[in-house]
């Protein structure tokens, strides 16, 4: 073990957590104040359009005589961009933590629970940043950062172990295939779970707004039924329908990777223990997790399950995944109990 690299890895981890905390605050500030900033910009643009007519295309920073933005805009902080910037810097520090940890141990940096949790959190943040490039999912940032900071905190405080050689059973090139696939799938499913929880909150608020809109007024007249806008904090998020679709798409991406991880694990088990499948607790719960996620996707594709029922199944599947990851390692004795 290279003590210098191990210490550098620990410093990277500390920096990663701090940067993710700052990013979390930035995302939260964007949710709290971002709409006000955008409303102010839109209002100013409308005023300029009303005053200048055809000159609305020039509305913006050039509208100021000195070539700068107005004082009101200068005072407004774009918390969303700030949070994304810090998030990307934190992701870079996280990558540095994994690389230096692997160099210190002279192996792939996922040989114990501390390294597993760190790698899974890295995979979750990576999946989020990829989604951020492809779709406008900045609203997930604050909630995902909470989960990632908690995960890294648990890993650092309770699961930390000095870098060292792998256990004999892990000495195989399959660790770079099977374990990597499991890490990527788990990180992806984590993002899907955060999206599902947010969906349930928004769907509940939308149902309340619908009920309030369809309630008969006190004067006896008939209320107009139909959808009603969600107000308050949850109004800053997309509709429940969009969140439901997004969660499904993320799960559809992670499911084949989890399937491949199970198959690769079976091949590794045959080379290590002389059998493909032995109903070891880890193998059993990996299969249970696969079955529940498969049931979720099958119910959506064939039975048309959407919304609350599908969300419940998705969360049950994620609970099975968490038990497979933590419960089997600490509560059940088996051939896969690598702490």
Key words describing this protein structure:
flat, mainly alpha, 339 residues
Question: Please, could you describe this protein's structure?
Answer:
The protein has 339 residues and is mainly alpha-helical. The chain is built from nine helices and no strands. It is flat.
How would the blueprint of this fold be written?
Layout: H1 3-52, H2 71-75, H3 79-105, H4 113-134, H5 141-158, H6 178-214, H7 240-273, H8 281-302, H9 307-331
Helix pairs in contact: 1-3, 1-5, 3-4, 4-5, 4-6, 6-7, 6-9, 7-8, 8-9
Helix residue percentage: over 70%
Question: Which percent band covers the strand fraction?
Answer: under 5%
Number of helical stretches of at least 4 residues: 9
CA distance, first residue to last residue: 19 Å
* Element-by-element helix/strand order: HHHHHHHHH
| Unreliable parts | 39-49, 55-69, 222-227
Number of strands: 0
Q: Round the Cα radius of gyration to an integer and report it.
A: 24 Å
Task: Give the rounded overall mean pLDDT.
Answer: 83
Biggest sheet layout: none
Counting copies of identical and different chains, the oligomeric state is single chain
Q: What overall geometry do the principal axes of the alpha carbons give? A: flat
Structural class: mainly alpha
Task: Offer a concise description of the structure.
The protein has 339 residues and is mostly helical. Helix content is 71%, strand content 0%. It is built from 9 helices and no strands.
């Amino acid at each position: 073990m290279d003590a210098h690299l191990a210490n550098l890895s620990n410093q990277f981890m500390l920096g990663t957590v701090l940067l993710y905390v700052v990013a979390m605050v930035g995302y939260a500030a964007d949710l709290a104040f971002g709409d006000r900033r955008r409303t102010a910009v839109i209002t100013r643009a409308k005023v300029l359009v009303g005053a200048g007519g055809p000159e609305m295309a020039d509305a913006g920073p050039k509208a100021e005589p000195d070539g700068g933005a107005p004082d009101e805009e200068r005072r407004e902080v774009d918390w969303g961009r700030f949070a994304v910037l810090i998030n990307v810097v934190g992701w870079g520090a996280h990558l540095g933590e994994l690389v230096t940890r692997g160099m210190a141990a002279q192996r792939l940096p996922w040989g114990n629970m501390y390294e597993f949790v760190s790698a899974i959190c890295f995979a979750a943040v990576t999946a989020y940043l990829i989604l951020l490039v492809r779709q406008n999912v900045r609203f997930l940032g604050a909630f995902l950062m909470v989960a990632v900071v908690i995960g890294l905190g648990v890993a650092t405080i309770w699961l930390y172990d000095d870098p060292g050689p792998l256990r004999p059973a892990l000495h195989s090139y399959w660790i770079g295939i099977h374990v990597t696939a499991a890490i990527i799938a788990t990180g992806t499913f984590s993002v899907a779970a955060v999206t599902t929880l947010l969906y349930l909150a928004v769907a509940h608020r939308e149902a309340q707004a619908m009920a309030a809109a369809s309630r008969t007024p006190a004067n006896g007249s008939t209320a107009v039924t139909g959808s009603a806008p969600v107000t308050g904090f949850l109004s800053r998020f997309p509709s429940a329908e969009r969140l439901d679709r997004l969660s499904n798409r993320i799960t559809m991406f992670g499911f084949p990777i989890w399937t491949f991880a199970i198959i690769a694990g079976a091949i590794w088990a045959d080379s290590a223990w002389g059998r493909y499948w032995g109903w070891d607790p880890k193998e059993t719960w990996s299969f249970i997790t696969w079955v529940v996620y498969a049931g979720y996707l099958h119910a959506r594709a064939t039975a048309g399950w959407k919304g609350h029922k599908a969300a419940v199944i998705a969360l049950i599947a994620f609970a099975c995944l968490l038990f497979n990851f933590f419960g089997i390692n600490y509560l059940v004795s088996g051939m896969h109990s690598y702490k």
